[in-house]
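Q: Now give one record:
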Amino acid sequence: MNMSKNDVRIALLDMNNNHPNQGMRNIKELSKAFQEHSEYEVSVELFDVRYKNEMPNIEDFDIFISSGGPGNPHREGYEWEQKFADFLTQIWEHNKTNEQKKYLFLVCHSFQLAVIHFGIANVCKRKSYSFGVMPIHKTEDGEKDFLFKNLPEPFYAVDSRAYQCIEPNDDKINALGMKIVALEKIRPTVHLERAMMAVRFSDEIFGTQFHPEADPLGFIKNLEDEKNKQAMIETFGMEKYLETIDRMDDDDKIVLTRAQIIPRFLQLASEQITKNLVFG
């Protein structure tokens, strides 16, 4: 494949299993915006991992964004599950031995799959479904992370999940050089461990339990789903639910999170890729 110094090839991995989803629309929009406004020659290709069993060849791309999606993150015997596990291993191994790195961003369901794959925490069902705009707390490592640099403490993001990543295996995390960079909100009245909300798996691989791609329009659309609406009212109460709807367009909440995390990831990755391109 002929590449020029400014070529950046992005693969989007759709993990929604043919379920209608706002997140994938949001990820496509962010990728398209980056493509249109970037100083690089950016190509974007979409792969339907779970429904069509499509998987990118890692040699053909520089940057991968893998979406959220429905269902159980633990193995259920589908062909794509092993393919996705192999994909994670290939990127990890490639980055250990190559100067030219591959960059990967994992959202929600994909994040849980990676946590299971690397064996760094217990991924289990929550007591109840979590849905809403939640405060996300940076850890000490998170305070130093480039992707969170312009976000307040706490920052706000859309949370939508039936599962959680808890009981981190610190020995394994340290041995692999990973860092937990965000935790869920503090709940003084609930005696449950705070779930991991973001992990820096490596310099090139980053994952979030929350949805950094979410926008106000998509969030409101998701609230048309009765399960999401009830989950949110259950979590916050009706007054808080109405207040959240009212705050959707606040510049310092999900609008800011969307403008920062994935765009910064794409920009940094592209800078590194084009800087390191080796010509044979």
Notes: The CA atoms of residues 151 and 257 lie 7 Å apart. The mean pLDDT is 92.
